[in-house]
Amino acid sequence: MATKIWTGGASNGDWTDAGNWSGGVPVNGDDVFIPEGAEAITTNLGQSAVTLDSLTVTFAQDIGTAAASLEINVSGVCTIAGRGSTYKINGTIADLVVQLPESATCYLSGGTTADADLVSGNLQIEAAATVTNLYANGGSVTALAGTVFTFLGVNGAQVETLRGATTAHVVNGRLIVQGTSAWTTVFGWQGGILDIRTTGTMAAVDMNSGSQLLIMNATQDPAVTNLFIRGTANVQRNARGISLNPTTTSEFAAAG
């Protein structure tokens, strides 16, 4: 419909004050741009009745407060690329892209996100938030217990999660599995570290050459049905020295 730009001109942090916007307060179908240098957005954050076409944040201030998130829906791409410290989002989002400095965090406090892509910075997925597909290509992700991921890709990032996944791939990053959630298939690839600290179930763990599997639970090993160790994949167990005891273990020598 229209492009709306946050100016913070009214100097009160109020999302619903037209004085803070160029083009008026955002409505359904708008493209919203929140640029650097304006007032933090802290008031009247409950915008769950609004569905934007897109939301782009290159903001140096915070969005949300300790007690409240910006509640809004985005049918297209929601890009969080600011230089503030805290961005709190709650709503239905088609495609979330987070590109923040190392010290900044985007909190998904609720709602449903179809695809989330972390490029840099920190992403925290709260228990009430559902993310279907997570692509962690940098930075750090913390996922609290909740709905399992359909797909989880770790490439150059660290992901620590209390929720499981149907399929996970770990490449040049570290996946720390906590809690008791169920996992279906986890693949470890070159440079990937799978750090299992869970007592949950894992139907298949497939570690390929150059990957590393760490079993770090201090009291109990995970229930792994099928474990595949291929080529130069490395397996390390904690100081208790007990085995995984999977139902099936298959080891494959390195090619050549």
Can you tag this structure with a few keywords?
22-stranded mixed beta sheet; 256 residues; mainly beta; 54% strand
How would you describe this protein?
The chain has 256 residues and is mainly beta. The chain has two domains: 123 residues; 112 residues, no CATH class. The chain contains no helices and 22 strands. The protein has a 22-stranded mixed sheet that branches. The termini are far apart. 39% of the residues are buried. About 2% of the residues have low confidence.
- Portion in beta strands: over 45%
What is the CA–CA distance across the termini?
60 Å
Shape: elongated
Uncertain runs are 240-245
How does the helix and strand content classify structurally? mainly beta
Total number of strands: 22
**Mean model confidence by pLDDT:** 89
- Rg on CA atoms, Å: 21 Å
Largest sheet at a glance? Answer: 22 strands, mixed
Write the layout of secondary structure elements.
Blueprint: E1 3-6, E2 21-22, E3 31-34, E4 46-52, E5 54-57, E6 70-80, E7 86-99, E8 105-120, E9 122-125, E10 129-136, E11 140-143, E12 149-155, E13 158-161, E14 165-171, E15 174-177, E16 183-188, E17 193-196, E18 201-207, E19 212-215, E20 223-230, E21 234-237, E22 248-252
Parallel strand pairs: 1-3, 3-5, 4-6, 5-6, 6-7, 7-8, 8-9, 8-10, 9-11, 10-12, 11-13, 12-14, 13-15, 14-16, 15-17, 16-18, 17-19, 18-20, 19-21, 20-22
Antiparallel strand pairs: 1-2
